[in-house]
Amino acid sequence: MASYHLSVKTIKRSAGRSATAAAAYRVGERIECQREGRIHDYTRKQGIEETFILAPKDAPDWATDRSRLWNEVEASETRRNSVTAREWELALPSEISAEDRSQITRDFARALVSRYGVAVDVAIHAPHREGDQRNHHAHVLTSTRRLEAQGFTAKTRVLDSAKTGGVEIEQMRGLWAELQNRALERAGEVERVDHRSLEAQREAALERGDALSAEELDRDPELKLGPAANSMERRAKVMAERQGREYVPVTERGAVVHAARQARAAFRELRERLDIARETYGAERDAGQGRVSAGLAALRAAAAKERGARAESEDMQERLARVVGRSEDQDDTPKPEGRNYARERLKEIMEKDAGRDGQAAVHKLDGHSEYDMGKEAAHAARAPTHRQGQDRSEDIGREGRKPSVNERLKDVMNKRERLEIKDERGQERDENENENTRDRDRGEGYSL
Q1: What pLDDT digit, counting tens, does each position of 296-323 carry?
Q2: Long-range contacts made by residues 96-99, C-beta under 8 angstroms, separation at least 24?
Q3: Segment holding 88, helix H or strand E
Q4: What is the DSSP string of 408-447?
Q5: What is the pTM of this model?
Q6: 51 — phi, psi (to 5°)?
Q7: End-to-end Cα, the chain, rounded Å
Q8: How far apart are CA 233 and CA 224, in angstroms?
Q9: Which among 18, 31, 81, 90 would be 20 to 30 A from 190, CA to CA?
Q10: How far is residue 296 CA from its own chain's centroid?
């Protein structure tokens, strides 16, 4: 899902910063600051995809020369605490193409030029090689004064005023969201970005009945690491990856941020599983399943979410059918109580598998004696030696092939019968021994 980000910062002399240094760093070029007599060389900086300058129509020709442009900006400000430039930091959707990212950034820059009459210097950056590979972003650096034919003139106080600054920035935030959503729509994406505050998004989610989204939005903003802590955490991640171990934060702020991100990831995972379970339950109920069967299928689908991640390209219905493992001709109509359907199904399998032998096994399963099966069964019961020899011959014939269901059942029943015979004989032996013991006891008693 595309995420929205637009922030506005200022370049202040009071903070020891300059417009020339800020421009050189963002575009990765070499600019000599004439006011300070310093050279800002960032030509070795990587990850810069595109840079361009936009200026009003009546701007002088030197406006397209980056070094001249920002030296003129510095020269137009005479106070030691002046705000020399303003930066608009934009997050670009990773779901759209590089051409579309360039186009929407250019459209936003044109809107700044048209609305405020300022010069705009744009640098589009690729994701950092050690960070999130979806983090495409742009740095839009603007002058704080209008650029006209004679050079820089009046300050853009509409952005500086407490009464109008917030309103202006909010309108530009809305424009940036609109540009992104148009590009996402052209790319065939369903999700849209929302420039409103988290509180406004939460209220909207509650109005449409999406409690999960409202709960996810109802959270504190993530703690900012800062340049020093961020650099330390990046080095720790790289070292952990090289050593093949789990990343452990090395700063207190990093530990807080890492724990918060893990909690949000667990929440998203739980929400995805809940959605899968809900869809599975609805599909099973529509297919005629009972509530219990549909609930079990939903639980299996939720538990198999990780196993199904390897086949995310498959259709959702195919994934649900694979998880449930249900055939089209399965009969799941409600069944009355008082019948042993497992026994009846077992009978059908045995009868189909082995004919007469299957019938014998079924009768044994139902508790009938072998006499009820006829003289052959009684003769087999009275001749265990012959039967054992037959079993050995059958075992030899079964070598090299997988035994059938009936054969496995017969083996189990024969073993059970032998155990029962041994138990009966053992009981008779115990009774005889007890009787002999009682006789000896009585003899010893009467000997007195």
Answers
A1: 888 888 787 655 554 444 455 555 555 4
A2: 96/183, 96/184, 96/186, 96/187, 96/189, 97/187, 98/49
A3: strand 83-92
A4: HHHHHHHHHHHHHHHHHHHHHHHHHHHHHHHHHHHHHHHT
A5: 0.52
A6: -135, 145
A7: 101
A8: 12
A9: 90
A10: 23
